[in-house]
Design a protein that fits this description.
This protein has about 200 residues and is mainly β. The chain has one domain. The protein has no helices and 18 strands. The strands form 2 sheets. It has a 9-stranded mixed β-sheet, with no helix packed on it. Strands 2-5-8-4-10-12-14-16-15 form a 9-stranded mixed β-sheet, with no helix packed on it. Strand 15 and strand 16 form a beta hairpin.
Length: about 200
């Protein structure tokens, strides 16, 4: 697949055909706010997206979708941004947020997820992850506030884990199967919950 600049003039809805892609990678390269992530296994597209407020640039290359918002020095501009992205659920995905994340609602419970990573801090994040196949790495670095992660259990019974808030971490909780091991560290290292079947 050649690199494709997706967004065209006048529109707010974007998509790329699945084509021959056997795996996907979603990468927010310059921060994100008010993002909704969903999964659709029946679509013929690699992904579909709609954005409100200032439009980001979108590029696709060999199954990798890069979303890059323009730089801004006005914090109020982040409140104008919102986006909904639907991923093709027939292929495995890696998901990355670079540059911080504010307000995420992600239902990935039926996605084949290879990894999920937030770099640069996170707040107002709610994620439902699928039952892990093999080892799934979930990382949050740069501090976290009001972060909730649910993992679809392998059986009806699961165990709960919660981290005590620290100066860099507040209101983070998880609901995970007993096989999931979680550890939190200050921003100099990475918080890395690791799920193993």
């Amino acid at each position: 697949m050649n690199q494709t600049k997706i967004n065209g003039p006048g529109g707010r809805d974007f998509s790329v055909p699945l084509g021959t892609a056997s795996s996907g990678r979603l990468r927010f390269a310059r921060g994100a706010a008010s993002v909704t992530l969903r999964v659709d296994s029946s679509t013929g597209y690699l992904y579909r997206a709609r954005f409100d407020g200032p439009l980001p640039e979108l590029h696709a290359l060999d199954g990798t979708v890069t979303i890059r918002y323009p730089r801004t020095f006005h914090p109020f501009d982040w409140h104008k941004r919102a986006g909904e992205v639907t991923l093709n659920g027939s292929i495995p995905w890696q998901i990355e947020f670079h540059g911080g994340l504010s307000r995420l609602d992600a239902d990935l419970s039926v996605l084949r997820l290879g990894s999920f990573e937030i770099i640069g801090g996170a707040s107002g994040v709610a994620v439902t992850l699928p039952r892990p196949l093999g080892t799934v790495s979930v990382r949050v670095s740069g501090g976290a506030s009001d972060v909730t992660i649910h993992v679809r259990p392998a059986s009806p019974r699961g165990s709960a884990w919660a981290a005590a808030p620290a100066s860099w971490l507040s209101t983070i909780s998880t609901s995970v199967p007993s096989a999931v091991r979680c550890a939190c560290r200050p921003p100099t290292t990475r918080a890395r919950p690791t799920a193993t079947t």
